[in-house]
Design goal:
heterodimer; A: 522 residues; alpha/beta; Rossmann fold; 3 domains; six-stranded mixed sheet; B: 311 residues; mainly alpha; ABC transporter involved in vitamin B12 uptake, BtuC; two-stranded antiparallel ribbon; 12 helices; 71% helix; binds adenosine-5'-triphosphate; binds magnesium ion; ABC transporter permease (chain B); transmembrane helix (chain B); ABC_transp_permease (chain B); membrane (chain B); transmembrane (chain B)
Chain lengths: 522, 311
C-alpha cells in the first residue's frame, strides 16, 4: 500500500526528533524519543492512551518546548518556539481536541490567523475551500456557526483548515475518530495523494487497521518511550494481518490475531419481557444547521442492546439528548418501565434510572478543572451522603471515589488531579463509573469508544456488555459498524433524523445495515 | 410653561444626560473590548480615575483641553499596562488585581491632588462646544444633542467604528477568539497574550479618555473619587450589551438620563430626600440586570489566564 515516491531517492528528513524528553509534574510524558519524518511518507504513531503521542505533537507544533533533546528541521537544529513559528516552518496540525472557536462561523475560523490589519479575505477563502472540498468529497457549511456542527463535521473543518494552509508536514492527531467509515477511507486516499506530491504526514490513530492500510512507517510509543518501529521496507513486505500482530506485540507484548474480533456472546434476551424503554413518534424540531427528529419509535427490552448506526450528524446527538431530556421534544412519548417520562426534567429522568454517556467528554461530560473525585458525583451535587446540609462530605466522597477508581481502573496520579489532565481513555472511565453507578436502568452510550486505545476500547465494550447482562436496557449509538455488529442484538439505522430500518444482528446484518446506511432498502 | 416639563428644562436634562453618558460610554466600550478578549477588567474604575486626574493636570498646566485628553488617555493606558503585565502576562487573578488597582488609584489620585492643590479645587474654563449647524436649531433636541464638545461626537462615531471592527475585521475575529477559545487562536498562529494586551491597553486608553472628559468637560475640575462608580457602571453595560457596541451606547444614555435626572431634581428642589434621588442610577442598574441580565452571554474563557500547552 505504499507509494513509489518513498522508495525513490533516500528522502531526507523534513523534521527529526533527537532524544526528546518532556516532563509534566509527576510524569515523564516523552522519554528520549527519536523520530524521523520524511517527505513522501505517512508516519503512523501508535500507542495506548497516555503514551505521549499528543505531547510529542505539541512539541512539533510549537505548543510545548522539550525539556531535553532537540528538533531538527531540514537537518538544522531548530527550536520551534510558537505555533506561529511551526506554521511558518510548514507544519500544519489537526489537534486531538477541537481547536475551533464555537461562537464563530466555519469561514471565520478558517480565516483566523490573518494579520490583524488585513481584511478577512472571504471570497478567496470560499474559492480555495471549494477546490479542496471537491477533491475531498465533503461538503462544508461555511456560514454555519461551529457550535451547531456535530463533532464529526467539526473534525472535517479542522482537516480542511490544515489543507487550506498548504503545509509541508501535516499532522493528524486522531483525526479519524469522528469520521464515518467512508470518510476514513477518503481521508486515507487523500493522505496517499498528498504524500505522492511530496508531503510528509504524521498520522495518529488507535485503529490498527487504519495504521496498516494508510501507513508507510509505524512508530510505537509506550509510557513515553519509543518501543519499536516498522520501517517502510518491512512494512511493504508484510501483509495486513502480519503488521497488526506485530503492532499488537509491540504495544501489549502479547500475541493475538485480531484483538477486536471477539465472538459476540449469545445472550438471551427474553423476547416476552416487557420493554424497559418505549419510544413512540418522538419528534424534535430542526435548528438552522442540525437536523430534527421525526417519528422515532423503538422499544428496548431489559438486557437488550439496541444499536443506532448511521453517518455522523444525522440526528444521533439529538436523539440521545431528547431521550435524556436535554433537548425539548416537539412530540411523541418516551416511557421508562411503562411510565411516561417525556415531560420530566433531566435530573428526574436520571433519578428514575435513565443515564446518558455523552460523546463530548470534556465539554459536557466533565468539568475539566474539577478533581477526579468530584467529577464522579457531579450529577449528585447536594445529595446525601456526599453532601449534607449543603456541605461537601470530603471523607465520603473520597471513600467512594477510591472504590470507583479501583473498580473502573482509572489511571490517575491522585483523586485531586483535575480531570482534564487525564488521557482520553481515563476520562471516559470516570464517565462510565459515574453513569453506571447506583440505580441505572437504561443507559444511552453515544460513541463510547471514540479516541480510546485498544485496551480501553475493549474494556469499555465489556462494560457495556456487562451492563446489558445485568438486565439493563442499552442504546448504543456509534458510527463504527464493527463495534455495533460485535455488541448489539438489533441495529437501527438513522438517516436525516428518522430511523430508516431496524435489523436483527444475525448473519447478514452487515450487508443489510450497510445497504440502509447508503440509502437502499435492507 | 415652567417647572419640570418646560422645553428649557427638558433640553437641559437631555444635555446633562449626554454629558453624563460619555464617560460611561467610553468605559463601557473599553470594558467590552477587554471582555471580548477574555479579560475581566475590574480595574477600569481605577483607569477612569487615573484618566480624570492626569487629564485634569494636563489640561490645567497646559491650558489645552486636547492635551488633557491625551494625558488622560495615557494615564488610563499606564494603569492598564500594569493590569496587562500582572493578569495577562503573568496570569494573576483578574478580580483581585482589578480591585487592588481601583483601590490603589483612588488613594493615589486623592493623595497627589492633596499635595498639589491642598484643599483648593481650581476650575478649568468652560469647554468650547462644537455646534452642528441646522441640527442644533431643532427645538429641545438641538440644544440637547448638537451643542457638545467635539469629543462627544467622536465618542459616538467610535461606537460604529467598534461595531465595524468586531464584525468585519481580522482584529475583531482575533479578539473574539481570544475570549472564547484562546487555544484555537494560538494554534492559528496569533499570539493570545499580545492580542489580550492590546485589548487591555485600549480599554485603559478609552477609560482614561472618559475620565478626562468627566473631569475637564463634565465637571470642569478634579475632586478625589470624582468617578463615583462610573467604571463599575461601564462593567455592567459591557456585560448587558452582549458584545454589541450600539447597546453600550443605549445603556449609557439610559444611565445618563438617570444621573442627569438626579442632578436636575436636586436643582429643581423637588421634595424627595437626596439620598433616594441619588439611588436612581443604581436602581436602574438593578432593573436592567433583572430584565436583561439573564440573557447576558459572556465569553467562555472570560477571567481565565491563558497558558500555552496547559490543559
Ligand atoms: N499539560 C499537561 N499537564 C500535565 N500532564 C499532562 C499534560 N499533558 C499531558 N499530560 C500527561 O502526559 C501523559 C501523556 O499524555 P498524551 O496526551 O500525550 O497521551 P496520548 O498518547 O496522546 O493519549 P491519548 O491516546 O489518550 O490521546 C498523560 O499521562 C497525561 O496525563
Ligand atoms: Mg492524544
Amino acid at each position: 500500500m505504499s507509494s513509489l515516491s518513498s522508495s525513490s531517492v533516500a528522502a531526507r528528513d523534513i523534521v527529526a526528533l533527537e532524544g526528546v524528553t518532556k516532563r509534566f509534574p509527576g510524569i515523564v510524558a516523552n522519554d528520549s524519543v527519536d523520530l524521523s519524518i520524511r517527505p513522501g511518507e505517512v508516519q503512523v504513531l501508535l500507542g495506548e492512551n497516555g503514551a505521549g503521542k499528543s505531547t510529542l505533537i505539541g512539541m512539533l507544533s510549537g505548543l510545548l518546548q522539550p525539556d531535553e533533546g532537540r528538533i531538527l528541521v531540514d537537518g538544522k537544529p531548530t527550536p520551534i518556539t510558537s505555533p506561529r513559528h511551526a506554521l511558518a516552518l510548514g507544519i500544519g496540525t489537526v489537534f486531538q481536541h477541537m481547536m475551533l472557536v464555537p461562537t464563530l462561523t466555519v469561514a471565520e475560523n478558517l480565516l483566523l490567523g490573518g494579520r490583524w490589519w488585513q481584511r478577512p479575505r472571504t471570497e478567496e477563502l470560499a474559492a480555495r475551500v471549494a477546490e479542496i472540498t471537491s477533491t475531498l468529497g465533503i461538503t462544508v457549511k461555511l456560514h454555519a456557526k461551529v457550535s451547531e456542527l456535530s463533532l464529526g463535521e467539526q473534525q472535517q473543518v479542522e482537516i480542511l483548515r490544515a489543507m487550506v494552509r498548504k503545509s509541508r508536514l501535516l499532522i493528524l492527531d486522531e483525526s479519524t475518530s469522528m469520521l464515518t467509515p467512508k470518510g476514513i477511507d477518503e481521508l486515507g486516499a487523500l493522505m496517499r495523494r498528498l504524500v505522492e506530491q511530496g508531503l510528509a504526514i504524521v498520522f495518529i490513530t488507535h485503529k490498527l487497521k487504519e495504521a496498516a492500510a494508510f501507513g508507510d512507517r509505524i512508530s510505537v510509543l509506550k509510557l513515553g518511550r519509543k518501543v519499536g518501529e516498522i520501517p517502510p521496507e518491512r512494512f511493504r513486505a508484510l501483509g495486513e494481518q502480519a503488521i497488526i500482530s506485530e503492532i499488537v506485540e509491540l504495544m501489549f507484548g502479547k500475541q493475538s490475531d485480531d484483538p477486536e474480533a471477539v465472538e459476540r456472546p449469545v445472550r438471551t434476551v427474553h423476547a416476552e419481557a416487557a420493554p424497559l424503554l418505549q419510544v413512540a413518534d418522538l419528534a424534535v424540531a430542526p435548528t438552522d444547521n442540525a437536523p430534527g427528529l421525526s417519528s422515532i419509535s423503538f422499544d428496548i427490552r431489559p438486557g437488550e442492546i439496541l444499536g443506532i448506526a448511521g453517518i455522523d450528524g444525522n440526528g444521533q446527538k439529538q436523539l440521545a439528548e431528547a431521550l435524556a431530556g436535554q433537548r425539548a421534544a416537539t412530540g411523541g412519548s418516551v416511557r421508562l418501565e411503562g411510565v411516561a417520562i417525556e415531560a420530566l426534567s433531566v435530573g428526574e429522568r436520571r433519578r428514575r434510572g435513565l443515564r446518558y454517556l455523552t460523546d463530548d467528554r470534556l465539554g459536557e461530560g466533565t468539568v475539566g478543572t474539577f478533581p477526579v473525585s468530584i467529577n464522579f458525583f457531579l450529577k449528585q451535587v447536594g445529595a446525601a451522603p456526599f453532601w449534607r446540609n449543603g456541605v461537601e462530605q470530603r471523607a465520603e466522597i473520597d471513600k467512594r471515589a477510591t472504590q470507583l477508581v479501583r473498580e473502573y481502573d482509572v489511571r490517575t496520579p491522585s483523586l485531586k488531579t483535575p480531570v482534564a489532565r487525564l488521557s482520553g481513555g481515563n476520562i471516559q472511565k470516570v464517565l462510565l463509573a459515574r453513569e453506571l453507578a447506583e440505580g441505572a436502568k437504561m443507559v444511552i452510550f453515544n460513541k463510547p469508544t471514540y479516541g480510546l486505545d485498544l485496551a480501553n476500547t475493549l474494556a469499555s465494550r465489556q462494560r457495556i456488555r456487562d451492563t446489558a447482562a445485568r438486565g439493563l436496557a442499552v442504546l448504543l449509538i456509534s458510527t463504527d459498524l464493527e463495534e455495533l455488529l460485535s455488541m448489539c442484538d438489533r441495529i437501527a439505522v438513522i438517516a436525516n433524523g428518522a430511523l430508516v430500518g431496524t435489523v436483527e444482528n444475525v448473519d447478514d446484518a452487515r450487508t443489510k445495515v450497510g445497504r440502509l446506511m447508503i440509502g437502499l432498502a435492507a | 410653561m415652567t417647572g419640570l416639563f418646560s422645553a428649557v428644562f427638558l433640553s437641559a436634562l437631555l444635555f446633562g444626560a449626554v454629558t453624563a453618558a460619555i464617560p460611561l460610554l467610553l468605559a463601557g466600550l473599553g470594558e467590552q473590548m477587554s471582555e471580548k478578549a477574555g479579560v475581566l477588567n475590574i480595574g477600569i474604575e481605577g483607569m477612569l480615575l487615573a484618566g480624570a486626574y492626569l487629564g485634569f493636570v494636563g489640561a490645567f498646566y497646559s491650558g489645552s483641553l486636547w492635551l488633557g485628553f491625551v494625558t488622560g488617555a495615557a494615564g488610563g493606558a499606564a494603569v492598564a499596562l500594569i493590569m496587562a503585565l500582572l493578569c495577562v502576562r503573568i496570569g494573576l487573578n483578574q478580580i483581585v488585581i482589578g480591585i487592588a488597582l481601583t483601590l490603589g488609584l483612588e488613594g493615589l489620585t486623592a493623595l497627589l491632588h492633596h499635595f498639589q492643590f491642598s484643599r483648593s479645587y481650581p476650575r478649568l474654563p468652560a469647554a468650547d462646544a462644537t455646534v452642528i449647524p441646522l441640527l442644533s436649531d431643532i427645538p429641545v433636541i438641538g440644544p440637547a444633542f448638537f451643542k457638545h464638545h467635539l469629543i462627544v461626537y467622536l465618542a459616538v462615531a467610535l461606537v460604529f467604528g467598534m461595531g465595524y471592527l468586531y464584525r468585519r475585521t481580522q482584529l475583531g475575529l482575533n479578539l473574539q477568539a481570544a475570549g472564547d477559545k484562546p487555544a484555537a487562536l494560538d494554534v492559528a498562529g496569533i499570539d493570545v497574550i499580545k492580542t489580550r494586551t492590546i485589548a487591555v491597553l485600549t480599554t485603559g486608553a478609552l477609560a482614561g479618555l472618559g475620565g478626562a472628559y468627566l473631569a475637564n468637560v463634565g465637571a470642569g475640575l478634579f475632586i478625589p473619587f470624582i468617578t463615583n462608580g462610573a467604571g463599575f457602571l461601564g462593567i455592567v453595560l459591557a456585560m448587558l450589551a452582549r458584545g454589541r457596541p450600539v447597546w453600550v451606547l443605549f445603556g449609557a444614555l439610559l444611565f445618563g438620563v438617570c444621573l442627569s435626572l438626579t442632578t436636575a431634581m436636586q436643582v429643581a428642589g423637588i421634595n424627595i430626600p437626596t439620598d433616594v434621588i441619588q439611588m436612581l442610577p443604581f436602581l436602574a442598574v438593578m432593573i436592567m440586570l433583572v430584565l436583561f441580565g439573564r440573557r447576558a452571554s459572556l465569553p467562555a474563557a472570560l477571567g481565565i489566564p491563558y497558558e500555552r500547552g496547559a490543559r
